[in-house]
Amino acid sequence: MGYQNRVAVVGAGLTRFMRRAQETGKELCFEAARMALDAAGLRPRDVEAVVMATAPDVFDGVHMKGEYLADGAGGFRKPYMRSFVGGGSGVFAAIHGWYHVASGHFDTVLVVAEEKMSSCLPHPQAAFNGIYDQFLERPLGVNLLWIFALEMNRYMQVHKVPQETIALVSVKNKRNGLDHPCAQEGIPGNYSVEEIVGSEVMVWPVTRLMVSPVTDAAAAIVMVSERVAKRITDRPVWVKGVGWHLDSSYWTNRDLYYPKYVEYAARMAYEMAGITNPRREIDVVEAYDPFAYKELHHMEGLLLCDKGEAPRLLEKGVTQRDGELPVCPSGGLLGVGNPIAAAGLMKVAEIFWQLRGEAGARQVSRPVRTGLAQAWGDLMQVGTVVVLGV
Amino acid sequence: MSVHIRDYPGIPLKDRDIGEGRVLTTEWHVKAQYAWDTGAALSRFFRALKEGKIYGRWCPGCDRIVVPPRMFCEWCFRPTVRWVEVCDTGRVNTFSVSYVNWDASRSAVPRVPAVIELDGASPGMGIMHLLGEVGDTLEEILRRVKVGMPVRAVWKPPAERQGAITDILYFAPCRDEGATEPGGCGCGGAVGADRAAPTTSGTDACGCGGGEG
């Protein structure tokens, strides 16, 4: 490939995930960024550039939120750039950090992702309605959950997957989340399929326990060139591949049963990583799971199984922490919480900790050398993929 | 989280912390208003809705009739060149049953958002709208609505139409499902008539047998 530097992740930080944090967005950024720098053994003055991921300004009622957060993220008098592709932003920020270093421009880059959703009243869901077409869709009285419910039902219909099978994703991830020290209060837990399916219907087939919550939190990672990595750590985690892809905003003209854009993003990352058989070569996966069906949808898009096969792998326990292909060992968005951009970067951080063997109670059983973090966002539209390896 | 890190920052608040004034808050109320010009394609589309008709655009590069209409084809990146009337009938591509309002509050009576692939347009060309006359409870709706089922637009009375997507009140199940004659709804969508089958079903176009809604 035509880039200058190999890039390593050398530190990660995370705040607690909270329905409502007392800290401001800047304060959350500061805590996560400082933890990541401490973990990497670096000082703020070592950081040459900062990347910030944060989702819509309208959550906070702060215009140019990236700039507002810059001071808390260590972006003071530095090259600073905001990544924003909706829910895909957290993983896209790591891609952004990668090309900052890979380009040869910078040796040390701090990547911070922040979301403070609780400020928006009466509920931040309403802030999302602006993603619908203002002429054709918003006059119908939309809610964000509609598109997910429509996509989930399409997936269920095409592959003949019962709601009960999809609920197993919630069961698994909410149980995994019990071992995450940052998990949002009341979000992880031991639930039965009946409890998941029987919880309050939001927009059928989506029930309350099949959708991730509203969360305030921040996450950060430090990305460095090989030159710096060799100096500061014996255990760098390398960025092996990155990929991203966007589909059409005419979402009603696409067949929602399959996320092609995730496949293209994955293919781009696999090609760069030299991965020809992802089913054998990827050891641990943090697929994006804002809704239960999304984990299955994304496993298929990531080419980790055939179309329609993900529910069977789930039923067989393949995606459990002690399975052959652990998916969302962190607990994911369903088990830890969903601070939009910070949730994506949390997934990158989880793969980093898994590959370093630092995940503690969440550490997957099988030996891991290669892991994948993926996020998704915009209007059922964007896929972002990072492959890490040791 | 890493096993090397013991304490994680963050001070979680409860709603009552704010309600009882234990933490201080500052409020800001924004009233934003917009008026969007509907643009070249949708202006014509909405004018036609006022007349009870649905128009798509034909792309010569891809030979497809797209709905919602656009003046350019995002596939081949050329201008679309012709207006084509499509049917006000179609098939349910997917649907859901919504118990939440725009602001996440609960609604007692569910609404049924759906993607409807319109007859006379190219395969897979859906629009989002609501289904109606399908029941008031989840059980009833799930019994009556099936993916692939034919539906037709139920229009507002002509005098009440405003040139908006809401000129179609909702799509309702076709009563005469048996009458399936391709092109039979009289929409004139001839260019696409031979490829009007929705991706969800067989080869029947305009499954309602045509006529005014």
Question: How would you characterize this protein structure?
Answer:
The complex is a heterodimer of chains A (390) and B (213). Chain A is α/β, with parallel strands linked by helices and 390 residues long. In chain A, 35% of the residues lie in helices and 18% in strands. Chain A has one domain (7-120, 213-389): 3-Layer(aba) Sandwich (Peroxisomal Thiolase, Chain A, domain 1). Chain A is globular and about 55 Å long. Chain B is extended, with a radius of gyration of 23 Å. In chain B, strands 4, 5, 6, 7, 8 and 9 form a six-stranded antiparallel beta sheet that branches. Mean pLDDT of chain B is 85; it is low at 178-184 and 188-213. By secondary structure, chain B is of the alpha+beta class. The chains are: A alpha/beta (390), B alpha+beta (213). Chains A and B meet through β1, α1, α5 and β5 of A and α1, α2, β4, β5 and β6 of B. β5 (201-204) of chain A pairs antiparallel with β5 (97-100) of chain B, so a sheet runs across the interface.
Structural class of chain B: alpha+beta
| DSSP summary: helix tally of chain B | 3
Number of E-state strands of chain A: 11
SSE run of chain B: HHEEEEEEEHEE
The H/E string of chain A reads EHEHHEHEHHHEEEHEHHEHHHHEE
Q: How many β-strands of chain B, per DSSP?
A: 9
